[in-house]
Specification:
Layout lengths: L12 H17 L5 H19 L3 E5 L5 E4 L1 H7 L3 H5 L12 H12 L4 E9 L5 E13 L2 E11 L1 H72 L4 H13 L7 H17 L5 H11 L3 H8 L7 H39 L6 E4 L1 H11 L7 E6 L7 E4 L2 H16 L4 E10 L2 E8 L29 H12 L3 E7 L2 E9 L3 H8 L1
Parallel strand pairs: 7-9
Antiparallel strand pairs: 1-2, 1-5, 3-4, 4-5, 6-8, 9-10, 10-12, 11-12
Helix pairs in contact: 1-2, 6-11, 8-9, 9-11, 11-12, 12-13, 13-14
Bound molecules: adenosine-5'-triphosphate and magnesium ion.
Length: 503
């Protein structure tokens, strides 16, 4: 608007006053003062006042970059005085990062183009960066551009609000990602656990399903033996022989060979369907000498019944052993789950670090099935103060990464010890190692070297937060190909804390 009214040229206040003064002189001297000049002065004063009091920052800059005029808002925002401005150009107050861009816009304005929208950063006198947005127009004298006029607004507040909004959105995204990571980790753990529980559960089911028939067959054989009136001594002798039978399945070839020998022995002794009994007898670990000893206790005609009785008794014993072992394993797993998830303890407590390590190893048994886990525990180390079950997440994430780094197969060493009143846990793996350039970044949230969809990069971020923030400890990692060590250091529970926890 201003540049379209050449008479309303912006001048400094001094010049304006001088002009008004000289007009006044003319007015005094002349009987009929020229009203056009007076209107000019009045108009100039009006524009001057509007510009001076505008809330926007307004500047007028000559084509050589020197300042012609700036308003009050401009000076208030940036802190320069008229004297300061007399000695600098516009380029001195533009943030270096924005200089190239502003130069280009300035050149456009000098060519007479209007720059409709410009966002830049000014530097205030006290060194602050002031973000502004606005537009730039040109003022002409005839065809020539004599100044550029910039109208700017300080957008610090708005950018700050936008930044806060973005930060909040980012936090929400991170929160969500962490939640999803937890769910994924939980899913992975439960899948492994389901597998671990499934094996003994299936074994119990298989063993118990055959038990009823085994017992029936054993009873039938027993009734036949009872019919020949065996004396108590023979029964006892047979039971003693069976008591000595030990299954040894470490060498399947040996078991298979034993099966052939047993079958041949039974055929030699006229036991019908020898092929049916031989596998179970060989599996159970009985040998032909023991069978011969049993044969000595019964009449030859009752040998087939005795073999059936022996077979079913051994099968029965084995089934009950499988059931006992499997249910022990199930109970162990349930116990580990309870310890791992901390279902039965208060949130804050003192505990032996080894319990958590062992529970975690049990929970991860499926993932660790092809890994040699070496425990180098110092069982004498004192308890540490724990907060909930979160340290188990630490061991889980470190072990999980170790297993990934060795593609599921290798060696893991877990060391515990005491150093300077700190409990130390070291977890070492012989996987591919962490490249030197990657090592400083592994604890960063969302840093992952795994293909998309395989890692969120939150595992070690979680570890770092639990160790340092929740437990006041520290964690470091060292690595070379074939040897990566995570070193966790945790403060031991102080005696007063221990007493408090005990009370
Ligand atoms: N034992 C290790 N051996 C080799 N590299 C490792 C080991 N532990 C961590 N890293 C590296 O550190 C990165 C970050 O690990 P972090 O556990 O934070 O995320 P992630 O395993 O990639 O993903 P997530 O754990 O979320 O599934 C991994 O991608 C891997 O490059
Ligand atoms: Mg991980």
């Amino acid at each position: 608007m201003l540049e379209n009214n050449p008479p309303a040229t912006i001048r400094s206040k001094v010049r304006l006053r001088r002009a008004a003064g000289s007009l006044l002189e003319i007015f005094k001297l002349e009987k009929h003062p020229p009203t056009t000049d007076l209107r000019l002065v009045e108009s100039e004063q009006r524009y001057q006042a509007v510009i001076e009091n505008a809330s926007h920052m307004i500047q007028s800059v000559r084509p050589d970059g020197t300042f012609e005029f700036v308003n009050k808002a401009w000076k208030t925002s940036l802190g320069y005085t008229d004297e300061d401005l007399a000695n600098i150009t516009i380029f001195a107050i533009i943030h270096p990062d924005y200089l190239d861009h502003c130069m280009a816009d300035f050149m456009r304005a000098i060519r007479g183009e209007t720059v409709e929208f410009l966002e830049t950063r000014f530097l205030s006198k006290d060194g602050r960066t002031v973000p502004v947005e606005g537009s730039v127009t040109s003022r002409f004298l005839g065809e020539e551009v004599v100044a550029t006029h910039g109208f700017f607004r300080d957008i610090t507040e708005r950018l700050h609000a936008r930044e806060m909004e973005e930060r909040a959105a980012q936090l929400e995204r991170e929160e969500r990602a962490r939640y999803l990571e937890k769910m994924a980790a939980l899913g992975k753990l439960s899948a492994g656990l389901a597998h671990e529980l499934n094996n003994p559960a299936a074994a119990v089911q298989r063993a118990s399903a055959g038990l009823r028939e085994t017992l029936q067959r054993r009873d039938t054989a027993m009734r036949q033996l009872a019919g020949v009136c065996l004396d108590p001594g023979s029964w006892q002798a047979m039971e003693e022989i069976l008591g000595q039978v030990q299954p040894d399945r470490s060498d399947p070839v040996a078991v298979s060979e034993a099966e052939g020998v047993i079958e041949a022995w039974m055929e030699d002794h006229d036991v019908a369907r020898a092929w049916e009994y031989a596998p179970a007898l060989a599996e159970a670990g009985i040998n032909v000498q023991q069978l011969a000893a049993i044969a000595n206790q019964v009449p030859a005609t009752s040998l087939p019944a005795a073999v059936r009785w022996v077979t079913e008794t051994l099968v029965f014993g084995e089934s009950t052993e499988i059931i006992a072992q499997s249910s022990r394993r199930i109970a162990e797993l349930v116990q580990a789950i309870k310890g791992y998830t901390h279902m039965d303890r208060a949130t804050e407590h003192d505990a032996d670090i080894h319990d958590g390590l062992e529970n975690t190893l049990t929970i991860l048994a499926h993932q660790l099935r092809n890994v040699d886990v070496h425990r180098q525990y110092d069982r004498s180390i004192p308890a540490i103060r724990m907060y909930g079950n979160t340290l188990n997440q630490v061991w889980t994430n470190i072990l999980d990464n170790a297993v990934d780094a060795m593609n599921g197969m290798g060696r893991i060493v877990i060391r515990t010890g005491l150093h300077d009143d700190q409990v130390i846990v070291e977890i070492e793996d012989n996987g591919k190692g962490i490249p030197t350039e990657v090592l400083p970044r592994i604890f960063e949230p969302f840093f992952t070297s795994k293909p998309q969809g395989q890692g969120t990069g939150l595992g070690l971020d979680t570890v770092w937060r639990i160790v340092t923030q929740e437990h006041d400890g520290s964690i470091t990692a060292t690595s070379e190909p074939g040897r990566t060590v995570f070193h966790v250091s945790l403060p031991i529970a102080s005696p007063s804390e221990t007493e408090g926890a005990a009370a």
